Amino acid sequence: MKLFIDTANIDHIKEINGWGILSGVTTNPTLCSKECRSFKDMIKEIAAIVDGPISAEALSMKKDEIVKEAKELASIAGNIVIKVPIMPDGLAATKILSEEGIDINMTLIFSANQAMLAAAAGARYVSPFVGRLDDIGNDGMGVIEEIMEAYINFDIDTEVICASIRHPQHVVDAALIGCDISTIPYEVFKKMIKHPLTDKGIESFQQDWEKIKGL
Ligand code: G3P
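# SN-glycerol-3-phosphate complex -> structure
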């Protein structure tokens, strides 16, 4: 499973990218608004840091405007992917843009039906939001499972991005289902790497090495 980071924070992206494990970045308008700076500058900087797809969201609501906005965003760098919400105009724009070679990440997916529509329109990625489904008492990971099964049944090559991840177990569950990608918040990456036995082991190995390193 490929690991993306779900943030627009440059320091966090640089830190996790420094681990050598990142395959891409996803942003959304809420994440970008936290950074309080020009959206296009932010996306350009991120695209130069991470060697992989960088999702930037188009905010227009009508087909022609979505297409125009997506083309502008795609021209920022060669690795930009356009996030488009699932809605009739979003699907129509996805059809046009994907045929022109612009990769679309269809977002705000909450059901297998929406994911099938996105794939039929030519989306390169779909982003089901597991955490937001769990928040309202639904089974977020169950929806990922349904999408994966439906895509496998018909050899659909649209990649599934497990999004709206809340904790490390979401990442494990997505991997066990065979989800293509997890887009992970910075704080969750920090929790994924931690284990008290690892900390204890490093500490005792360092202390024991001190006893013999000068001999
Ligand atoms: O970027 C899309 C998604 O990951 C948002 O997550 O935490 O706002 O539900 P969240």
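# post-check
The chain has a mean pLDDT of 98.
DSSP finds eleven helices and eight strands in the chain.
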